[in-house]
Structure formats: C-alpha cells, structure tokens
Design goal:
34% of the residues lie in helices and 19% in strands. By secondary structure, the protein is α/β, with parallel strands linked by helices. The chain has two domains: 169 residues, Rossmann fold; 89 residues, Pantoate-beta-alanine ligase, C-terminal domain (Pantoate--beta-alanine Ligase, Chain: A,domain 2, 2-Layer Sandwich), CATH 3.30.1300.10. Strands 1-4-3-2-5-6 form a six-stranded parallel β-sheet, with helices on both faces. A three-stranded antiparallel β-sheet has the order 7-8-9, with helices on one face.
C-alpha cells in the first residue's frame, strides 16, 4: 500500500496539493475507526484528500491532558493510507503559531462559544476556531469534514466559515459508535473496563430521550435523566436545543447533548430527534 505524502511546512503542503480541488479532515491524531470514516466520507469530495495531524496546544486549558494526549503518528499514517489520504499535513507548532502561543491572533467564538462546552472550558473554542482558521488558510480546502460527535464544535466551525467568508463547505459526518453505543473518541483509551461499561449509559440515555420525543421536550429530558442519573458518572450537562444550539421548538428538529466525566476522561455525545407537539 502506497502511503500518503507527508508535508511539514506550508511550502511542502502547497507543492503536494497542487491546483486540484481539496477535501480536508482536521485531526489531532490518535486516529480510530471514527476518523477513518471521516476520511472515507471526505475521499470523494475532492481530487486531493488532506488529513492534518496536529495536537493543538491552544485548545487545552492548564491542567488538561495536552502533554498526555495520545500521539501515535506511525499508526496514524497507516490509517490514512487505508482511507486513501493523499497528503498528511503534520506541522510543528511554529508553523501554526509563528508569533508564539501567547502573542498569536485568535478567533473569538462569539455567544455560542460561551455555553455548554464553552461554560466548562472557557478558552477551548477560541483555540479550536483559531487552529481551524489557520488550517483553512494553509490548506485552502474546498470542503472540510468534521464529526457530529463534537456537535457544538461543528456548529461553531460552520458559523466561522460562513461569517469569515472562507469559501469552505463544512460537512458534518454522523457519529461512529462502538458496538455498545459509546461514541468513538481518542480519549476512550483512558477508560478502564469498568468505566467503559459505565460510559455506555450516555448513549443509552440519548436513545431513551429519542424514544420519548413524541411527548415533548420535558419527556425527552426526563427519559434521558432516568437512564443517566443512576450511573456512576459526573454529569456536566444534559440539554435539549434546536440544531443551532438555541431553544428547542415543539414540532421541529432538535438536538440532545450530554457531557460527563467517567473516571478521568470527559466524554461528549449527542443525537438528533424530532420533537412532538405544535410550535407555539
């Protein structure tokens, strides 16, 4: 199997991508089957498929797991080759932050960046949007593919691409799950066997909420809480919103989102549903 070209600098990246249409899948590495599905989803969307691998320091707050975040570059290259990636962009920190981490220009995520994950991790989305904006500027993709597991992130990146006129089509890819329903994540490897069994309650609670959707928002949240609350998880939030993270509306599409700490890892999940009832 022929592996992808590895580009470390902007010049190498531009030489490798040429003038073809480009699909980009940004990652922080430690690739799993969920990432492979993102890459395969993106493969037909551009002549050249670029995967970026960069553990972005600015989206980690002090005390979070930046130093311990798994780095598996050789295995990641094999995954990229499996998915048909043409170019792996694996820059060093100075390539992404030429003015340094403190003095760099950043992207303000706006009001949506202050709720949910933004309330728990106030600097997180500023770091995410800043690095994605830089990747858009370096790679110049026509299409960029992100997973729906990090739904608030997907919403913010879509908004940023539109409002900053990047000319990039942002595509969401459905969450890939383990056999027990747990959403695939690079942080799942931190779970013990017992914690792994406990973590499956998050997706089970979301499914319970969907089953109650015909009875309205209160029923959705009650059903989800009934499954999740008895479990040994540190629940951060369980909320029902509209697809843009505003208030959910009866009779329309909605999103049920959960975040909880199970042992050391903080896990996210969400699911789409249609609420019953008549809009007021």
């Amino acid at each position: 199997m022929t592996g992808p070209i590895i580009a470390r600098t902007r010049a190498e990246l531009l030489a490798a991508r040429g003038s073809s249409t480009v699909a980009l899948v940004p990652t922080m590495g430690a690739l799993h089957d969920g990432h492979v599905q993102l890459l395969k989803h993106a493969r037909p969307l551009g002549d050249t498929l670029v995967a970026s691998i960069f553990v972005n320091p600015t989206q980690f707050a002090p005390g979070e797991d930046f130093e311990d975040y798994p780095r598996t570059f050789d295995a990641d290259l094999e995954r990229c080759a499996e998915a048909g990636v043409d170019v792996v962009f694996a820059p060093a920190v100075p390539t992404m932050y030429p003015s340094g981490l403190v003095d760099t220009v950043t992207v303000d995520p706006g009001p949506i960046g202050t709720i949910l994950e933004g309330a728990s991790r106030p600097t997180h989305f500023r770091g995410v949007l800043t690095v994605v904006s830089k990747l858009f500027g370096l790679v110049r993709p026509d299409v960029a593919v992100f997973g729906e597991k990090d739904y608030q992130q997907l919403t913010l990146i879509t908004q940023m691409a539109r409002e900053l006129a990047w000319g990039v089509e942002v595509v969401g890819c459905p969450t890939v799950r383990e056999a027990d329903g747990l959403a695939m994540s690079s942080r799942n490897r931190y779970l013990s066997d017992a914690e792994r069994r406990t973590a499956a309650v998050l997706s089970a609670g979301l499914r319970a909420g969907v089953s109650a959707a015909a009875d309205g928002a209160d029923a959705v949240l009650a059903a989800a809480h009934a499954v999740i609350d008895p479990a040994d998880v540190d629940l951060d939030y369980l909320v029902l919103t509209d697809p843009q993270l505003g208030p959910a509306v009866a009779g329309q599409e909605a999103r049920l989102l959960v975040a909880a700490r199970v042992g050391k890892p903080r896990l996210l999940d969400n699911i789409g549903l249609t609420l019953g009832g008549t809009p007021s």
